[in-house]
Design brief:
alpha/beta; six-stranded parallel beta sheet; globular; binds pantoate
């Protein structure tokens, strides 16, 4: 496996041995978990040469976010990539991708209608920074395919839009959410969920999405001709699941002195919405091709999850 630190490292490799190969790129910020590994496995089915980029991109973190503390287990990540037969890992330094500290760089500015909602409301500038680094990576590697997790549904929609607007020829591939056995969507930030209460409370997201899907399916079974309005159905599902989860935690308190009441202070729901599966734009009613998206901060950890209605 080649470990590349600069774009020039890649250009040299390309000249030497990559003339007629198609390339798939899996952009990551490292701290690889089974979700990333699923993206890599998928990339390997698409192309003869797979590059994984590992770069914690400062441009997409806000001032009060976890850039400094974001996990960076590079040795483990390299070993995981090697085990999966990744051809090259790109691990640039910040100075390599953003050499001039004194002068501002050209940034990609995705349109407001995509960024000024959902996660963009709480993370101003996040999607500009994300799109900027993704464009740089696509320019460096010129891949035939780039693979992203569907968990970041808004991110994926913004990348698709950018690729279309800039006439890039790369095919953007979305990969379904990978979950742990409890149903929690895998995320590098899950390691911040330290206690059993935090882990249990984090399931609020997936359980709410499942309950919403069940209510939607129930409506279909009842042969209602009108698709159900999204907002009330989602609100009811959230309230029901929230009460259930709080009750479960209070019955199973593991840490002495910890009550479900304390847990209620540990949940901030940022959004629970129905969106178009491709564009991530809001929809009023639930139909096929609708995706539910949700973000909540649980015990100080911002989590997102999503489910495509079926
Ligand atoms: O999803 C991520 O890990 C990041 O946003 C990405 C796409 C690698 C860009 O830094």
């Amino acid at each position: 496996m080649h470990v590349l630190h600069t774009p020039d490292d890649f250009y040299t490799l390309k000249k030497a041995c990559l003339q007629n190969q198609t390339l798939a790129l899996v952009p990551t910020m490292g701290a690889l978990h089974d979700g990333h590994l699923a993206l890599i496995r998928h990339a390997k089915t698409l192309c003869g040469f797979v590059v994984v980029s590992i770069f914690v991109n400062p441009l997409q973190f806000g001032e009060n976010e976890d850039f400094a503390h974001y996990p960076r287990p590079l040795a483990d990540d390299l070993a995981a990539c090697n085990n999966l037969g990744v051809d090259a890992v790109f691990t640039p330094s910040t100075e390599t991708l953003y050499p001039n500290k004194e002068l501002p760089i050209t940034r990609v500015c995705p349109p407001d209608h995509l960024t000024n909602r959902l996660c963009g409301l709480d993370r101003p500038g996040h999607f500009d920074g994300m799109a900027t680094v993704v464009l740089k990576l696509l320019q460096i590697f010129q891949p035939s395919y780039a693979i992203f997790g569907e968990k970041d549904a808004q991110q994926l929609a913004i990348i698709r839009h950018m690729v279309h607007d800039f006439n890039l020829t790369v095919a953007i591939v979305g990969h379904p959410v990978v979950r742990d056995p409890s149903g929690l969507a895998l995320s590098s930030r899950n390691q911040y969920l330290k206690t059993s209460e935090a882990k249990h409370l984090a399931l609020l997201l997936y359980k709410t999405l499942l309950a919403s899907q069940m209510a939607y399916q129930e409506n279909l079974r009842n042969n209602n001709t009108d698709p159900p309005a999204a907002a009330p159905l989602l609100k009811t599902a959230y309230n029901t699941v929230y009460n259930q989860v709080m009750a479960e935690i209070s019955q199973n308190t593991i840490e002495p002195g910890f009550a479900a009441g304390d847990c209620s202070k540990q949940v901030v729901l940022h959004y629970l919405e129905a969106v178009d599966a491709e564009t991530c734009l809001p929809v009023e009613a639930l139909r096929e091709n609708t995706r539910l998206v949700m973000a909540a901060t649980v015990f100080g950890v911002r989590l997102i999850d999503t489910l495509a209605l079926s």
